[in-house]
Amino acid sequence: MSDPDGREPADGRKPGDDRNWTVVVEGGVAKTNDPVSSAVAEPGAATNRHEPHEPPRTTLPETLYEKRKQVHNKRIDGPFRRFKWFVMLVTLSIYYVTPWLRWDRGPFAPDQAVLIDLANRRFYMFSIEIWPHEFYFVAGMLIMAGIGLFLVTSAVGRAWCGYACPQTVWTDVFQHIDRLVDGDRNARMRLDKAPWTIGKVTRRAFKWSIYLAISFATGGAWILYFADAPTLLREFFSGEAAPVAYGTVLILTGTTFTLGGFMREQVCIYMCPWPRIQTAMLDEKSLIVTYKDWRGEPRGSVKKAQKNPEKFGDCIDCTECVQVCPTGIDIREGPQIGCITCALCIDACDRVMKDIGRPRGLIDYATLEACEAEAAGAPPQPAWKALLRPRTLVYFAIWGAIGLTLLFALGTRNRTDLTVSPDRNPPFMLMSDGSVRNSYTLKLRNMASRPREMEVAVEGLPGAVMWTDTIAREDAATKQTFTVSADQIRTVRAYVIVPAQTKAQDFSFRLTSLDEQGESDVVETGFTAPGGE
C-alpha cells in the first residue's frame, strides 16, 4: 500500500503488495518470531510448535528422518533378566531341535514329530495329523494364538514383545555376541568411535561372521520343518535339494542377519505393526513397566539428597535404566512405543535402590490405576490382583473354550471319509433293457497310518446295484469292498443301475471301515432318471 500522498513506503513495498512483512525470507527459508505451522513452513523456519511429548522447538528440523542412534545396552542381572534367559533358551531350543524329534506313526507314515508335508498336503504334530479338509484345526489354533496375545497384552502389557517375539529373541542373541566380542557398553562405545584400523576391521569381521553363522542356522532350521530333516540336510549340502530350499535359506539368512544384527529396535519401533495394535488394547488396569514419577521426582544425586532430603525424590538420575534398555528409551519419560516391556530397567533400578538403601519399585510392573492410588497414599497393590479382572477372565474363557472345542473335535473325529461326485454329462444312461445307470466318482479317504478294508454300500435306492471299473458288471451288488492304502485317498469310478421305471430320487453312499474301529461316513447324493422330478 502507498502513503496517502501517493509515495511508495520507505521499506520498498509496492502498492497493492499485501504480503506479511513480519516474515523475513533468507535464502528461501522463512524466518519469523511468530509460531509457524510445520505443515506450511519450510525446514529451518522459526517456530514455537511442538508435539506434547517434545520440548519446545526454536526451528523446524531440516529433515523428517532422524538418524539412528546406536544402542549399546549394558549387561544386567536380576529376576527379569534370568527369566528372559530362560524364555530365550526354551524358544531357541524348540525352534532348532523340534525338526530332529522322531515320532513313531508306523511303517506307512513319516516319523518326524513335527512335519509340514506340502507334497502330500499333510501337517503332522506328534500324534496329530491334519488333512487339507481339516484346516479348521489350523484356523482354530491361529485364533487361539491371536486371543492368547490379546490375553497376555491386557494382563501384562507387551510381554510378548519383551520375551518371546522372534525379533526380540534373535536381537538379544546378537547383543550378547556384541558383549562377547567387543566388551560391555563403554568398550563398545569406544570401539564405535575409534577409527577403522586393522584391529577394528578384524574384530568386526569376526563378529559379523558369527552373525552370519547364526542367521544361516536360522534359515536352515526353517526348511527342515517341510521335509525329513536328516534327508534334507544331506541333500542340501550335497547340492541335491530343491531350488526353493536354497532360496528360502538365502532369504531367511539375509533377513535374520539384517533385522537382528543391524536394525534391531528399529524393527520394533518403525516396521512392526503389532506395537500399535497392542497399545490400543492397554488401559489403566493393564500391568505395564512404569516409572513412579511421584516418588522419583525431582531427581537429584545421592549427595544432594543427603543435604536436602525433602527436596529430591528417590531417582538419583544414574541413567542405569536407560543403559540396560535394549531399545535405548528412557522409561522415565512415560509409556512409549519403544518400550517392549522386557523389564530389564526394573532389574537395574532395583539394584541401584538396594545399593543406596531405598525401597525397590521405583520402576516396577504396575497399573496406572494402582500408581495413582499409591501416589495418594494407598499401599502398593500386588501384581496378581491386576490379572483377575473381567477383561482378562473373558479372554481366558474364550481362549480355553476354543482349545477345549479343538481337543473334543480331535478326540471324536472320524478317520474315514467319503466324497461323492455324480457325473453331470451325461446325467444318466438308458440301457437296452430299460434300466437306468448313473456314474459317480467316489473318493475313499483312509486317514489311519495302516491299510484298511473299506465297504461301500448303496442305501435308500430300491433295486440298485453297483460295480466299478475294476469290478465286472456280472459282480454288481449293493455293497462292494475296497482296500485303501495307509494315509491315502483311493479314487473309485462307480456305476449304479436301477430297474426300469425308477424315478429320480435321493439316496446315500455309506463307507464303512472293516476293522475294529468300524468307522463310517454317509454321503447323500441324487439319482437321475428319465422320469425324474
UniProtKB/TrEMBL annotation:
**InterPro entries per the record?**
4Fe4S_Fe-S-bd, 4Fe4S_Fe_S_CS, Cyt_c_oxidase_cbb3_FixG, Electron_Trans/Redox, FixG_C, Helical_ferredxn, Ig-like_fold
Q: Which SUPFAM superfamilies match?
A: 4Fe-4S ferredoxins
Which Gene3D superfamilies does its entry note?
Answer: Alpha-helical ferredoxin, Immunoglobulins
| Entry GO terms, CC | plasma membrane
Q: Where is this region: Disordered?
A: 1-60
Ranges for domain 4Fe-4S ferredoxin-type come to 303-334
Q: Name one GO molecular function term.
A: metal ion binding
Tell me the keywords, alphabetical order. Answer: 4Fe-4S, Electron transport, Iron, Iron-sulfur, Membrane, Metal-binding, Transmembrane, Transmembrane helix, Transport
Give the stretches traversing the membrane.
83-101, 135-156, 208-225, 245-263, 393-411
Pfam assignment, any one: FixG_C
Regions of biased composition (Basic and acidic residues) lie at 1-20
PANTHER family assigned to the protein according to its UniProt record, in alphabetical order: FERREDOXIN-TYPE PROTEIN NAPH
Stated name of the protein: Type cbb3 cytochrome oxidase biogenesis protein CcoG, involved in Cu oxidation
Q: Which organism is it from?
A: Altererythrobacter epoxidivorans
